[in-house]
């Protein structure tokens, strides 16, 4: 019996081809047959919004069931407007029945019917594209969401959604923008402020190094004044004065350090007429320094600092040294 | 850019609001209560809805927005959850919890087809490695570079060495480059936030004009939770652009604003 049916379909398919002329653009799914019929049914008619029901569409009497394509309900406005549609696997029975299944979820409680699907097919017996559809729409009763339906979903909520929050974290987080800006300002200005504090201190304590373009004698004089203010011991002051004078005298004799900067003032001193007199004074002061350092203990020379400073002032031109 | 710098400094110096703190505490209490009432879905959902409401009133960063998003999602308000997660991601695009939450919330949107789902979800903003590093380590890098610059300057002054002057120069340039990148990254996020984003909170039809008499732009109504960019507003109608590039009009009441930070 099955063989006979299969043979008949094969012969009919070979004999009857669907013409291109007049082929409908819509609702034609490739079916060929004589007096086709369509059935539609849903597994439940009472449901809630977004709750699924299965729609089964059965096309009976097609001579070419294997060539009938699945009707795309998403292209049918009545369906796509009212339902969320998912395709379910197709069942094709051998005795000319095509069965298509869909999962429909109503979008709102205003949905009340499943509209009939119109199927157009080629009828070779009468030679034209006929149409068929179920007689009546399927009536639905769609209710709005109820808490009961949500309760089923509730059990499926992932655990991370119930994350435990610490109120201190939240309060900290409230000010996160402000803290980021303050953090950036601190990152930039913090080291700069520490450096500035160091620089100020360094400048005041190391004038001879920090003053780049200052005259050597001027710096020496400043440091001598600092030693005096700090009430340094006589031998310490004497050592400081002596070292400077030795350098100066070496330079005047032409044996100064080659790396020592010789500025215009040094040149002026070297070419001065008072050079001999200065050398003599420097030598006298240097001897007093030696005596203060290496002479008998308890020796006093309170005027050493004043004399050394007076010498320098005279050397660099009085007003300038001041 | 200058306006932004001034506004950020003003923000940093502004006196914190106390009202926001009250809302935050109420949100936290409601959320904790919801967790305790987990076995009673009806009561828990009410608590989570309350938490989401209070959290939306409170200013904050990623953690506050995560609480808001989780609470809204647990209360069943997908549109609110998506808006909260998006707002949080503007603050901290690296927050895994926010990204996870947004993905979850988007998965609950009832698109009419898989194609719609693919087309109507906005692509994630490009979260490049460079921006991530600048955002996360910018302040620390600036602090280190500024420290190195100051140390190098100190030694350069003491030892008068060219090597230290070079180190100082490099470290200074590096400090300002990283700081500039940090400001730029911030500015970019502010710019993204300045665009008005909305989330559909009531299933609605998109029309081609600002009245229901215009033909619909799409065959299907747009489901709750779809994100869109607002481009114009006339009266009670808002012009929106969907992720697939289609532009249409919806009533203002049917959308929820993501809100800028």
Secondary-structure blueprint:
The complex is a heterodimer of chains A (about 325) and B (about 260).
Chain A: H1 2-15, E1 28-42, E2 46-48, E3 53-62, H2 77-82, E4 83-92, E5 97-106, E6 113-114, E7 119-123, E8 128-132, E9 138-139, E10 141-143, H3 147-154, H4 167-174, H5 176-205, H6 207-210, H7 216-229, H8 234-252, H9 264-270, H10 275-294, H11 303-316
Parallel strand pairs in A: 1-7, 2-10
Antiparallel strand pairs in A: 1-3, 3-5, 4-5, 6-9, 7-8
Chain B: H1 2-13, H2 18-36, H3 41-57, H4 62-75, H5 78-91, H6 96-107, H7 114-120, H8 129-159, H9 162-194, E1 197-200, E2 227-234, E3 237-241, E4 247-251, E5 255-257
Antiparallel strand pairs in B: 1-2, 1-5, 2-3, 3-4
Helix pairs in contact in B: 2-3, 2-4, 3-4, 4-5, 4-6, 5-6, 8-9
What is the gist of this entry?
In chain A, 45% of the residues lie in helices and 20% in strands. Chain A is α+β, with helices and mostly antiparallel strands and 322 residues long.
Descriptive notes:
The complex is a heterodimer of chains A (322) and B (261). Chain A is an alpha+beta fold and 322 residues long. Chain A has helices at 2-15, 77-82, 147-154, 167-174, 176-205, 207-210, 216-229, 234-252, 264-270, 275-294, 303-316; strands spanning 28-42, 46-48, 53-62, 83-92, 97-106, 113-114, 119-123, 128-132, 138-139, 141-143. Chain A has a six-stranded mixed β-sheet. In chain A, a hairpin with a 4-residue loop joins strand 4 (83-92) and strand 5 (97-106). Chain B is an alpha+beta fold and 261 residues long. In chain B, helix 3 runs antiparallel to helix 4 (62-75). Chain B starts with a helix and ends with a strand. Residues 11-18 of chain B have low confidence and may be disordered. Chains A and B meet through helix 2, helix 3, helix 4 and helix 5 of A and helix 1, helix 2, helix 3, helix 4 and helix 6 of B.
